Structure formats: structure tokens, C-alpha cells
Amino acid sequence: MIKIDNKNHIIPDSSLSIKSENSIAECKRCGTCCKKGGPCFHVEDKMLIEKGVILIKYLYTIRKGEPAYDNIKKCLIPVSSDLIKIKGRNDSWECIFFDEKDNSCKIYDKRPIECRVLKCWDTREIERIYSKNRLTRKDLVYRVEGLWNLVEEHQSRCSYDKIRHFVKKLDGEKKNEAIERIYDILSYDDSIRELVVKKGKMDPENLEFLFGRPIVATIRMFGLKLEKKDGKYYLSPDKL
Ligand code: SF4
Ligand code: SF4
Q1: Within a 13 Å sphere around the CA of 155, how many CA atoms are in the beta-carbon half?
Q2: Contact 97, 85 (CB under 8 A)
């Protein structure tokens, strides 16, 4: 499986060691790929979510513009559209649907397309589909009254392009203003999550799908650390 680590490094299928260790011609259902990270979703998988086979709470979004490591270009580049992925179990890479006891997939008959086409011994098919027809939050949330507006507003106010813009200014004359704008973004990111949970009665487990991972965590990709004291954020001084 293609995995994305906590610095958003996309690790290609060829990282599956089984390919070099064994010469196999069919899937042994060993689970190695499932332990290395869950799939990204494509339009073909939409019905799995709409029919409730895979619940939103098991998903998270890498938002459009969020940096991810491009293994071809060997650097972090912004993703061109949302990537919707299955969460890992307990902060590990292991797909949440992998059943360790049986070494099997709990949704095997209804697993997403990437899982179905993945052949660790021949990655051509998954490479062919990987960037095509990616499912986005809009595909899933557009018709939910009020909710899509919130997602759009959050994306506009807390876009990674904006964060990137202000992070670049941290080395310049307008550093203090840039710090304030980053705090504003963090504050909005926090408050919208709180709002939809408290007022909208949203399951908090759905937040990483709706608004991506909290910026307080992903800001590390920009070489910054944040601490929260008495309800206020403080950027770590090493980059300032
Ligand atoms: S594709 Fe099949 S054989 Fe290859 S790592 Fe995955 S489960 Fe194992
Ligand atoms: S959905 Fe199933 S087949 Fe796909 S990575 Fe998860 S456990 Fe493996």
C-alpha cells in the first residue's frame, strides 16, 4: 500500500519488502501491505462510504495544498487535491480494518480499489490508478446542508497556501505580523472543530475527515512547534 507518514512522506508500494524478498505471483494475504498503511480513496470507492460500509470516523483528509513528500521529486510538495485515507490503528500505520488475530481484512469483500488492485510483486496497476479519480471531501459532503459551507470556509481561512505564505515571512521584517496571522489560523482551526462538536453535535472522530488533521500537529511539517498555555498558542523560538 502507499503510505503517508507523519511528515506526509508518501511511501510507494516498492517499499514493501516482500517484493524483493520473495518472488510471488499471487497475493498470499500476508497483511504486510495493510500493516504499512491504509489506502487513499477514489471515486470508485464513494459507495462504500455512502452505504456506511466504511464510516467517516475511520477516515482522515490530507487537504488540498498540504505538503506531502513526492517520492519521484524527492521533496515535500503540496498535494493537488484532497487525499482521503483510512486511519491507522492507535497511531500506528496499520490499517484500522486489519484484524491482527486473523491476519485478515475485516472488509475484504468491500475493500477500496487500491487494496483490490495492489500486487506487491507488480506495482504497475496501482501506479496507474494512484493519481486518478481521487475522491474529495466535496464529493461526499457537498449535499449536506450547511456542512459543506463550513468545510469550504475552513479551507479558505486555514489553507496550507496561507500557512506557507506566513511561514516564509517569519524570517523577514514582518515576522511579528506573520506570527499573529499563524495564531489566527490556528485559533480558527481549533474553534471550528469545537463549534461543530458542541453546537452541531458532530462526533469528534469525524473531524479529521472534515477539516483534516489539526494544524497544531501538521505545522511540524513547516519546521515549527507549537505549545498551548492558558488557551494561547506559542510558536517555538528555534525557527523564529
Ligand atoms: S499484496 Fe498480498 S502478498 Fe503482497 S503484501 Fe499485500 S497481502 Fe501480502
Ligand atoms: S482496507 Fe483491508 S485490505 Fe485495505 S489496507 Fe485496510 S485491512 Fe488491508
Answers
A1: 21
A2: no
Interval 36-63: pLDDT, tens: 888 999 999 999 999 999 999 999 999 9
Q: Which three cell numbers stand for residue 156?
A: 479558505
At 182, which amino acid appears? I
The set of residues, in sequence order, having a beta carbon less than 8 Å from that of 44 and lying 6+ positions away, is: 113, 133
Rounded CA-CA distance 175/188 in Å is: 20
Q: Which amino acid is at 61?
A: T
How close is the Cα of 105 to the center of ligand 2, in Å? 5
Q: What is the pLDDT of residue 73?
A: 67
Q: Residue 16 CA: which ligand 1 atom is closest?
A: 5
**Radius of gyration, CA atoms only, the chain:** 19
Domain boundaries, the chain: 3-136, 143-239
**34, 42, 101, best to mutate for ligand 2 pocket (most atoms within 8 Å of CB):** 34
Cα angle 5, 74, 186; round to 5: 50
3-state secondary structure of 40: strand
Q: Which amino acid is at 237?
A: P
> Three-state DSSP class for 83?
strand
